Amino acid sequence: MSKSFKVIIQTIEHDQVVSESIVIKGDLCAPKTNLDFSLELTKQIDIIKGVQDHVLNEKIAILNEEHDVCPCCKSNLIKAGNQSSNYHDVFTDHRVIFKRLKCKNCKYEAPCTVRSLFGSIQSGQLQKIQAELGAKHSFREAEDMFDTFSGKHRGINNHDRIKSVSESLGQSLYEIRQEERKLIKVEAAEELILNVDGGHVKTIEDGRSIEAMASVVYKPENIAYNDKGTRRHLESKSCAASVKNDNQEEIIAGTIAAALQQGLTKETNITALCDGASNCWNIVNAFEPICKSLTKILDWFHITMKMENISLPEKLKAKFKRVKWHLWRGRSDRALLRLEQLKSMTKNPTAIKRIAQFMTYITNNEDKIVNYSQRKKEGLVFTSNLAESTVETLINQRCKGKQHMRWSRDGLNPILQLRASIHSKGEWDQKWKMAVLNAA
After folding, report:
1. pTM for the full model?
2. Strand pairing partners for 240?
3. Nearest-angstrom CA–CA distance, 96 and 267
4. Each residue of 23-68: pLDDT tens digit?
5. d(CA 281, CA 258)
6. For the chain, which residues make up each domain, given as ranges?
7. I need a surface site. Which of 178, 320, 332, 436 has the fewest CB within 10 A?
8. How far apart are CA 186 and CA 190, in angstroms?
C-alpha cells in the first residue's frame, strides 16, 4: 500500500481553525541509502518557507486591522490598493503583500512595507548570523557559507551585504557599550588580571600599517583546567578592542568598561601584563587612579619570544641561557651584564644588533621585571599566554590571516567591536538584539 505525507499549518482562533495551508506534501517509500532516508535540504527549507509564508500573512492581516484609524486626525483609513515587499530570514526569502491604507482627510499613509515598519527587510536573526560570520571570516567566505547551508546562492547574503550588516551592528554595539559604561553594576572583585597587546594590520589608507589594540580582563578565580588538569582556560573574561586614531581614548574607555564588567572598584588590586610597548602601558596607567593597587609586569611570554629571535653560535648558547636564568629570577641587572658580554663575544652584525635591541627592551622595562620563578611557585600570574590566544583571535586571525587583506580604520573598528563582544563571556548573546534594533 502506497503512503504519502502532508504538512499543514493552521491558524487557531478561540479554539477554532480559521485558516490553514499545505506547507509540503510527498510520497513515502522505503529508504535504500542515507541519501534518501530524510528529506533533502531544499525540501527542508521548503517546509520552513511554507510555515513562514503562512505566519507572515497572518501577522500582516493583524497589522492591517490595527491600522484602520488615522493616527493624525482619527478618521477612518481607506484602502488604496496593495503593496508588495521583500522579506528575508535565515534560510528563506519571501514576497509579502500589504494593503495600502490612506487617510482621505490629511493624506496620511500607513506604513506598507517591511522596511517602513521595521527599518530593515532582514530578520534580526539573519542580521545576527551575518554579523557573526562577517566578524569571524572574510566577507566572501561568509557568503560561501551561507550558500552552502541555503543550498543555493541568495542575493541577500552577498559579501557586500554581509560587510554592511557587520559594520552596522558593530557600530551599534559600540554605541551601546558607550551608554552602558555608566550603568555597569556587578559584584566587586578583589583582584583582576589585565592583559594588553596590539597587532599591526595592513591598511588601504596610506600604504602603511595601522595598529589595532586589544585587551582582556578576568578574575584569577575564573582560570579553570580541563578534565585532565593539563590545559588552562578562562571561564569568564571581558574584552575590548579598537583601531581608532584618537590618542587611545576608545581602547582605554573600553578596557575600563571591560574591567567594570569583571567587578572593578576602588578596592580592586590589578595585575597588568604587557609586552613592554609604551602604548600598552599607557592603557594600563589609566587604571592607577581608579583601583586600590596596580602591579605592572613585563610579560614573560614576550620576553621569551624576543629571546628566540636572537640567533647565536653554538658555543655562546649556554651563556645566553644564563641570561634567561637571571631574568626568570628577576635579576635584570645581571642579565644586562651577561648580554653585554655576549655582544662583545660575537662578530655577527645581526646578532649584535638584536642583542642591543633586547638590552634596550630590558632597560626600558626594568622596573616591571619581577621574580617570575617565585610568582610561579606561589601560583600567581606571570605571563599572558592564557589570554594571548584571545588577543590573537581578536586581531590577527580575522585581520591578518590573508595577506591581501587591506583595512580602513572606519571599516575595521566595527569588526573589532563585534569580535570583542563575541569573545566576552555572554555579552554578544545579551546584546545582539539591542544592536539589531539600534542599527535599524
Report:
1. 0.84
2. 215
3. 58
4. 999 999 999 999 889 999 999 999 999 999 999 999 998 887 777 8
5. 17
6. 3-121, 125-178+435-439, 186-429
7. 178
8. 12
